[in-house]
Specification:
The complex is a heterodimer. Helices cover 75% and strands 0% of the residues of chain A. Chain A is mostly helical. Chain B has six helices and no strands.
């Protein structure tokens, strides 16, 4: 981690917040990744399917195209431990839909509206993430 | 027009996640690793993202209606129940194990290899399970 990483983090953050602002002010919708994807796959978002598909197409497709065209050296450094991937994915999927949001919906869009639910959810998942990291990395040594 | 805005939103969201380093699981796990080699980048990302949204909400709440005609989403009841607490605990735990939340899981799908696809598949199954076998709300926490 270098100071440049923090600057890039802030610039990338401004882009994420601008995207959320655009979606709110034009479409009147909350840019929550888990809600948009979840509603698409479980049928609860049938009435605005096209909007969901278009957003996800941009979210998946444009970074891939941009990285391919620019040849930027970007890696997700993701684990190849299948047990972690499956357990982690199930928890993130079930948890975000049960909580009604994730980092983008509760975190970015909720906190900026001073929503109690957004603030509580964010504090809880940050705390749970920190504790899980402490146990899984420093006590069990699995990640 | 709505679809066009949605596509631009997704594109800018995805590029922002890559630029900020949030599609790199090392940065995210580093943020949660308070007792190890702590990486504060995520706080700068969240701060940067909240900033434009503070203004957007002020404008939105005054307008009542979005530019393309739909109503601005109503403020939800400030309900803190079992579902939001237990769901967030599960999400936080899974987030720490792999270092991906739903946005970056999608944004990195094109370059995350087979691991990214496996995580995405498990996440979709988890989302489906939350619909088929939902956690009861129970008493207010």
């Amino acid at each position: 981690m270098t100071p440049i990483d923090l600057v890039m983090g802030f610039i990338g953050g401004l882009m994420i917040g601008s995207a959320a602002s655009l979606f709110l002010l034009f479409n009147g919708r909350i840019m929550g990744a888990s809600g948009i994807l979840g509603g698409l796959i479980d049928g609860t978002g049938r009435h605005n399917m096209a909007e969901r598909i278009a957003l996800i197409a941009g979210l998946i497709g444009v970074p891939f195209v941009a990285i391919t065209l620019t040849g930027a050296n970007v890696s997700s450094n993701i684990t190849d431990n299948i047990a972690l991937l499956v357990v982690g994915g199930l928890l993130v999927g079930y948890g975000t839909r049960t909580a009604g949001g994730c980092t983008s919906g509760h975190g970015v869009c909720g906190i900026s509206r001073f929503s109690l639910r957004g603030i509580v959810a964010t504090l809880v998942y940050l705390l749970a993430g920190g504790v899980t990291m402490l146990v899984a990395r420093h006590m069990l040594g699995v990640i | 027009m709505r679809t066009m805005i949605a596509f631009i939103t997704g594109s800018l969201f995805g590029l922002g996640l890559v630029v900020s380093g949030m599609t790199n699981t090392t940065n995210v796990q580093g943020w949660l690793d308070v007792f190890g080699n702590w990486n504060p980048t995520l706080a700068f990302v969240l701060g940067g993202a909240i900033l434009p949204m503070l203004f957007a909400w002020r404008v939105a709440e005054r307008r009542k209606t979005a530019i393309l005609g739909t109503p601005i989403p109503a403020r939800s009841d400030p309900l803190i129940d079992r579902r939001i607490v237990i769901g967030s605990v599960m999400f936080g735990a899974g987030w720490a194990l792999v270092g991906l939340c739903p946005g970056p899981a999608m944004a990195s799908l094109g370059f995350g290899g087979l691991s990214g696809v496996i995580f995405m598949a498990a996440m979709l199954i988890g989302m489906g399970a939350a619909r088929i076998a939902p956690l009861p709300a129970g008493a207010t926490a």
